[in-house]
């Protein structure tokens, strides 16, 4: 899911010379982001992108789902939303008559990534008498897992293979507690889910974990990133650094606003930092501000002096000493 658009940078690193997203055009119906000309696109010898056909203010052009493998058995990463007939038809077209999905891996629990599972299982009921494995990471936020689908929970570092594609699970929480990315060994490429988007910046639930995950991606040093939304990223290091710098800059801006306005509410801070944001993205920006505030409270930089959404002010020395014994409502 996207917060707001960040400037795109030019290509700085090598990437495979397969058909890319460079042929995109602008389209007002796609919420001010680039519109993909093709719903089905071969991105490399082993990666096909099928667009989820669910464009929106948070999904950009729609969810990117990916078929992996060079043989007849395929892995599908993410499934889009529920009840999107055009997507199911495009998925069937991409598979053709000879290929089958053996494994579905969800990068996280959000409906625009797991919602299409039921429809896929109904569309391909026999699947050559082979049951499709459903895989994701377990949630760690205290919320119940969906009971509609029986997931096999993956572990960090776990390897999943089909002919021509070897995937490794990379635990990257922050956007959600169960978020994973997937490392494609054959291409030194990364499927980033909603940790890094092709356009704009992502929303997140836990900023400390999110920054840690972004730094983990830097250590992996992928050649290419296949994001959960937006175009392929062929300058991964620059893009991930841009994400980290964007968050750290936001933190500085929030501290500056608190210093000048204190005590101040999260809503007031969001309105000052995002004065021109689209109305449809305003709530996402508020959530991100609140998560920044949660991190700053945890760090001891600020304190919450109100109830509910609260008012915030810079922490004084006595506040830092009492932090371990206090309970802030964010």
Automatic annotation (TrEMBL):
Residues 62-229 form the Metallo-beta-lactamase domain. Keywords: Hydrolase, Metal-binding, Zinc. It comes from Heterodera trifolii. The lineage of its organism: Eukaryota, Metazoa, Ecdysozoa, Nematoda, Chromadorea. One of its GO terms (molecular function) is metal ion binding. Belongs to the metallo-beta-lactamase superfamily. Glyoxalase II family. The keyword Hydrolase applies. SMART domains: Lactamase_B. This is Beta-lactamase-like protein 2 homolog. It comes from the Eukaryota. Coiled coil: none annotated. The keyword Hydrolase applies.
